[in-house]
Amino acid sequence: MKIFTSALVTETNTFSAFPTTLHSFEELGIVHGPVRDDVLSDVGPILKQWRRLARQHGDTVHEGVYAIAQPAGIVEAAAYAHLRGAVLAALAQAMPVDLVLLFLHGAMVAQGVDDCEGDLIAAIRAQAGPDCTIGVELDPHCHMSAVMAASADAIILMREYPHIDYEERAAELFALCREAASGATRPVMAVADCAMVGFYPTTAQPMRTLVDRLAEMEQRPGILSASYVHGFPWGDVADAGTKVLVVADGDRALAAAAAHELAQSLYRARHALLPRLETIEQVLDPEPAGPFPVILADAGDNPGGGAPCDHTVLLAALLARPTLRCAFGMLWDPAAVDACHAAGVDAHISLCIGGKASPVSGAPLTLEVRVCALAERHSQTAGNIIDPLGRAAWVRCGLVDIVLVSRRQQTLSPTAFTGLGVPLHEAQVIAVKSSHHYYAEFSRLSTNCHVIETGAALSMDFARLPYRHRDMQFFPAVADPLPELA
After folding, report:
1. Core-most of 163, 240, 368, 399, by most CB within 10 Å?
2. What integer pLDDT is reported at residue 38 of this predicted model?
3. Is the full-model pTM beyond 0.90?
4. How far apart are alpha carbons 387 and 423 in whole angstroms?
């Protein structure tokens, strides 16, 4: 078989003031295939799986265009048009193809296009033809539209949050789609809407049990795949929200019944699934309770959801408790990083940190710091991914070690600190800019983790998000929006 692969990945926070531009994608590199193993670390593991499996079957893989941007605001129309055109041009060069495999995020919104993934998949269907099998791997923090489901043959979502199962899901998608392309199966999809907006880490109950049910569902005759669409709450589009997607073999009624059953389980657990955020004072006063280190997640300033990543409220709170030995990172402040590099290691300087990017960044902090370490090309390692962070600095103010970076990115791994030499083992409190992805790596240091409400950009008061395009008939804005699922 001849297989075409491509990727277009970003998550659009429609409430963010930061536009996503073509430069946003160029920051990580827009790569035209074939792709080297040392570029595009987020996509690399998936491509390796597809290449490996294709070799096993004697298939030919044509690698198209791969582009990733850090989550931010609405994608500029010209940027989306350019990237969409590049993917379609690469597909035209590869034609004819038997199978198209796409890695997309699922929550990309551009000027004039609320459903970029649906638009792109539909364009690929029109170009590749009705006989080509199209498979898509999505992030669970996506929007699931009718166009996406109608244009693809099979869609599989990562089921874990943190997303530690990129490669496993990629292998499942390959197997499912290759069987379909060979005529062994005829996948059909059904989507059930849960009328919910939420945030669902899969490492805690009741979500852990609900996720485990997906594998049980897939053991039933005729069910090829089952996925939860967590949804992306900070994308104000009509399709935003929590859903269930099931792929069955030729039986749409079976897929619909299975999707309804899973949706009912989610819906009945909706109150238990509400996020439980804590205040800084609840965790740190009068003294933080062990075991140590205590890990604080500033979910509201998570750049992985489009936040600025320079909010200062949590840092100020740590500095206000001068007896606590703390590590704080990563804060995005290219100007502060440049000032540290100009001063040099061991310099004692007055440094203005954070609070610069937007009205939801908090107030800038002017601190007396010592520059402890510098890096021109800092990175963090999370699983098989080496994540570039750009120019960076480690500074110390009192008993607080602070990591400053020039590339906006959430804190995924202790190596974001230790790679600069921060003595993380000394910290009683580690504060990170992340919602839940940090947990995969940091839980090895401690499971004493707390999600902190700091008043930053990503509010989890879902009932009060200022939606204009997504209707308000969802839980928790409405107590029981779908009584038939109760």
Report:
1. 240
2. 64
3. yes
4. 21
Q: What residues of the chain score a pLDDT lower than 50?
A: none
Q: Is residue 354 within 8 Å of 433, Cβ to Cβ? A: no
Answer for the pair 119, 113: CB distance below 8 angstroms, yes or no. yes
Give φ, ψ of 284 to 5 degrees.
Answer: -100, -15
How are beta strands 449-451 and 223-229 bridged, if at all? Answer: unpaired
Residue 177's CB: how many other CB atoms inside 10 A?
26
Spatial distance between the Cα atoms of 158 and 139, rounded to a whole number of angstroms: 6
User: Which DSSP helix (H) or strand (E) runs through 68?
Assistant: strand 60-68
Alpha carbon distances (Å) from 312 to 66, 99, 118, 249, 402: 34, 48, 37, 52, 12
List the one residue out of 27, 40, 72 whose CA is nearest residue 390: 27
**CB neighbours (10 Å) of residue 36?**
9
Handedness of CA 167, 169, 173, 179 (dihedral sign): positive
80, 204, 225, 232 from 107: Cα distances, Å: 13, 24, 21, 7
23/69 Cα distance (integer angstroms): 9
Q: Is 249 helix (H, G, I), strand (E, B) or coil?
A: strand
Q: How many beta carbons lie within 10 A of that of residue 55, not counting itself?
A: 11
Q: Which residues pair with 192 in a beta bridge?
A: 244
What pLDDT is stored for residue 36 in this prediction? 75
* Nearest-angstrom CA–CA distance, 94 and 470: 38
In angstroms, the CA 199 to CA 7 distance is: 25
Q: Encoding tokens for residue 108?
A: 């990309």
Identify the H or E element spanning 394. Answer: strand 385-397
Span 418-456, pLDDT tens digits? 999 999 999 999 999 999 999 999 999 999 999 999 999
Looking at the DSSP bridge assignments, the partners of residue 322 are: none
